[in-house]
UniProtKB/TrEMBL annotation:
SUPFAM superfamilies: Cytochrome P450 (SSF48264). Belongs to the cytochrome P450 family. This is Ferulate-5-hydroxylase. The keyword Kinase does not apply. Gene3D superfamilies: Cytochrome P450 (1.10.630.10). The keyword Oxidoreductase applies.
Length: 329
């Protein structure tokens, strides 16, 4: 009888402790897990995918008129918070920049950009901070910009002279293509030391591949959003991404190998005449790869991925083209 009473006391104490823990967790839960923003009704499996349109920003604007500036959406098994006002965008991208600085990579980005070697989609860590510092000091720093000033001046002068000759001959000019060629030549020279002089040039081949990369990065892939389709290649994305990666890797390997051979030859020449050549971004990256005492060890794949991001940039020519259209109109 004494044993059963003792056992009953232990069980009662255990049950009371469990009940107290459950009640405590329930009271604590609303504070730990905030309610998500307003959300439209979702469908099974696909979530809110049916509400999106080809012009996705139009769909977001229509949803914000009904559900408010901050919306919770579920695309397949992936969850998103959509901010539709400048103030909220600033809150995410500037005020809380470090919290939201890491970006999720889809299948195409992961495969084409050498997995975690890319800078644009790298998580906020030592490598990301190192590459940001390197980009701002070596590529966009005052010393580098000053070194490449004669190059930019010469290319702009040639561009203006071409426009003048076309004007004198009363020939039409595709300003968008001309501005694109100008900015591409500047970027290619600063990045790789090569100029786009035709459709067969290495710079033009690299930019053509980057255009394919940009396109596949922005396309919708079912495998990225629907959980049970993750290992399936229903749209052929994996095959396309592998093909682009192989072609780009082959081209970049040739450019880097040619530069390494040139660097070996130039070291001998520099020893003879004592002159220092202006370094482009590829030279700087290869110098860093050769160093072994840095906080971050760069590999050949890091170099390729960094060039992939920058050599295809088209923001400058878009801005210049827009400014010219504004001036004309």
């Amino acid at each position: 009888m004494m044993i059963s009473e003792s056992l009953l006391s232990v069980l009662s104490f255990f049950l009371c402790a469990c009940l107290f823990k459950v009640l405590f967790e329930r009271r604590k839960k609303p504070k730990a897990h905030l309610k998500p923003p307003p959300s439209p009704p979702a469908l099974p499996i696909i979530g809110h995918l049916h509400l999106l349109k080809p012009l996705i920003h139009h769909a977001f604007q229509e949803l914000s008129l009904r559900y408010g500036p901050l919306i919770y959406l579920r695309i397949g098994s992936e969850k998103f918070i959509v901010a539709n006002t400048p103030s909220l965008a600033k809150e995410f991208l500037k005020t809380n920049e470090l919290t939201y600085s890491s970006r999720k990579m889809n299948m195409a980005i992961d495969m084409v950009t050498y997995h975690n070697a890319t800078f644009a989609f790298a998580p906020y860590d030592t490598y990301w901070k190192f590459m940001k510092k390197l980009s701002t000091t070596e590529l966009l720093g005052n010393r580098s910009l000053h070194q490449f000033l004669p190059l930019r001046t010469r290319l702009v002068r040639e561009f203006v002279q071409t426009l003048f000759r076309k004007s004198q001959a009363k020939e039409s000019v595709n300003l968008t293509e001309s501005l694109m060629r100008l900015s591409n030549n500047v970027i290619s020279q600063m990045m790789l030391g090569i100029t786009s002089s035709g459709t067969d040039s290495q710079a033009e081949q690299a930019r053509a591949l980057v255009r394919e990369v940009t396109q596949i990065f922005g396309e919708f892939n079912v495998s990225d959003f629907i959980g049970f389709c993750r290992n399936l290649d229903l749209q052929g994305f994996k095959k396309r991404a592998l093909d682009i990666h192989k072609r780009y890797d082959s081209l970049l390997e040739k450019i880097i190998s040619d530069r390494e051979e040139l660097r070996r030859e130039s070291k001998v020449e520099r020893c003879e005449d004592g002159e220092e050549k202006v370094k482009d971004f590829l030279d700087i990256l290869l110098d860093i790869v050769e160093q072994k005492d840095l906080e971050v060890e760069l590999t050949r794949n890091h170099v390729k991925s960094l060039i992939l991001v920058r050599v295809g940039s088209s923001y400058i020519d878009c801005c210049l083209s827009g400014c010219m259209k504004f001036c004309v109109n």
